[in-house]
Amino acid sequence: MNYKKEIIIRGIKIIDIGYITTIYLILGILFAKMCDNFIGKFNEKTEKNKPIRRSILELILFLWFAAIVTYFVRNLIPLIPFPLNGIYGFDHLKVKELTSAATFSLAFFIFNQHYQEKVNYILSVIE
User: Fold this and answer.
1) Model confidence over 26-72: pLDDT tens digits?
2) DSSP secondary structure string, 18-51?
3) Where would I find the H helices in 42-111?
4) pTM of the prediction?
5) How far apart are the first and last CA of the chain?
6) How far is CA 111 from CA 11, 20, 37, 79, 115, in A?
7) How far apart are CA 127 and CA 26, in angstroms?
8) Would you list the domain boundaries of the chain?
9) What is the model's pLDDT at position 16?
10) Phi, psi (degrees; rounded to nearest 5) at 42
11) CA dist., res. 27 & res. 104, Å (int)
12) How far is CA 112 from CA 45, 48, 64, 86, in A?
């Protein structure tokens, strides 16, 4: 076994995981802010005039939309080249984190202000 090659490939893999995570994080923040700009600020007065089931339905529809966006982003990320691909036989497309959009989803929901406020409103009404 060639330990030098193995160490180099594992180092490249660690760099690749950071690269993938950074891209997912940036896209998650960008999409969250784009959604906030499109949907607008959460207005509690307007929300109080709706039945709670409508607010919950809107939240479910938003989650459905988020799942679709996540699907597209997850299929887009493998198309972005990795600068160290091919070095010592490293294959960027074999890194499992490439198709795991967990970082994107986390960033998307954490940085989506409208979603956060709507969830907090629904929880306050249900309690």
Assistant:
1) 999 999 999 999 998 899 999 999 999 999 999 999 999 999 999 99
2) HHHHHHHHHHHHHHHHHHHHHH----HHHHHTS-
3) 44-48, 52-76, 102-110
4) 0.88
5) 61
6) 31, 19, 12, 25, 9
7) 35
8) 3-126
9) 97
10) -70, 130
11) 7
12) 20, 21, 15, 37
Report the amino acid identity of residue 3.
Y
What whole-number distance in Å separates Cα of residue 30 and Cα of residue 104?
A: 10
27: Cβ contacts below 8 Å, ≥ 6 apart: 73, 77, 104, 107
CB 48 within 8 A of CB 125: no
Q: For residues 82 and 16, give the distance between their C-alpha atoms in angstroms, rounded to a whole number.
A: 7
Length of the chain: 127
Residue 88 exposed, middle or buried by CB count within 10 Å (0-12, 13-18, 19+): middle
Q: Which two tokens stand for residue 6?
A: 């193995």
Residue pair 98/20 in contact (Cβ under 8 Å)? The answer is yes
